[in-house]
Design brief:
Interacts with RSC1A1. This protein is α/β, with parallel strands linked by helices and about 260 residues long. It has helices at about 15-20, 50-60, 85-95, 110-115, 120-130, 160-170, 240-250; strands at about 5-10, 10, 25-30, 45-50, 65-70, 75-80, 105, 115, 135-140, 155, 175-180, 205, 220, 230-235, 250-255. Helix 2 packs across helix 6 (about 160-170).
């Protein structure tokens, strides 16, 4: 089903409202706390406090569903990383081949040590996370074996985004996270850019436009080799990430040379 853009400023068009009512998808809009005007309820979208949105999103995730969420870089699709059926749904929604890995998203640095084997200093991790960086580390045995079964590594994120961090904390386990788009299509920084996916999602959390400057996504860096780093994707924080790795912690780039 082709959907029109739902939002025009703060209001939806009449046709957009009718289409929303046809969907099972919950459209939940985050509102800055500074907004004092009363909410205007329309279809399944309305200005809501963060707690209500968090509760609805956690409920959907624990029910094995896939949700769309804002991050500090782009919009993402998320499910519980320990739920194998939910992971399959993510691949199906994106039209993605199973050989392309999903990252995990956690709420606190201490959570990384539960699901990854870490060989770098915790201070280094604290320099990069929370932030627009994905760290690729050796996975721990406790992580779902159906998540990226083709590799001993896993990318881990802690977005610099209060909603996402709290969502992970409330779930009590990592989220599997990937970009909210069809595989090979451009990443998205506003919910209307992936509106064709809405009917296949349980919840769409609208955090507003994120901005084109972050459309490159997070910088992905492999830290699985002791004393080395390898940039897998430059992303939107390339220079600052390399500066931390090389100049502050003395890591050298892994060029693959023997």
């Amino acid at each position: 089903m082709i959907l029109r853009r739902v939002y025009k400023s703060a209001l939806a068009t009449r046709d957009g409202r009718a289409r929303c009512k046809e969907l099972m998808t919950k459209m939940l809009r985050l509102s800055p706390q500074s907004v004092m005007n009363g909410p205007s309820a329309q279809c399944e979208e309305r200005l809501q406090d963060g707690a209500e949105i968090l509760n609805s999103t956690v409920e959907a995730l624990k029910d094995g569903q896939v949700v769309a969420v804002p991050t500090d870089t782009i919009y993402g699709l998320a499910c519980l990383a320990q739920n194998s059926n939910a992971i399959k749904k993510v691949y199906d929604i994106k039209g993605r081949k199973g050989q392309k890995p999903l990252a995990i998203c956690v709420g606190e640095i201490k959570d990384i040590y539960k699901y990854c084997k870490v060989s770098v200093k915790e201070e280094l991790i604290g320099e990069l996370l929370p932030g627009p960086v994905t760290l690729v580390l050796e996975r721990a045995e406790v992580l779902n074996t159906d998540l990226n079964p083709f590799t001993p590594l896993v990318g881990v994120r802690i977005p610099d985004h209060a909603f996402m961090r709290r969502l992970c904390q409330m779930c009590g386990e990592p989220l599997a996270l990937t970009s909210a788009n069809i595989s090979s299509h451009s990443s998205t920084v506003a919910i209307h850019e992936f509106q064709d996916l809405w009917p296949r999602l349980a919840v769409v959390v609208d955090g507003g436009p994120i901005g084109d400057k972050s459309r490159l996504g997070s910088t992905v860096v492999d830290l699985s080799v002791l004393g080395k780093y390898r940039i897998i994707r430059p992303g939107c924080a390339f220079s600052s990430t390399v500066d931390v790795l090389e100049h502050k912690y003395g890591l050298s780039e892994d060029t693959g040379d023997q």
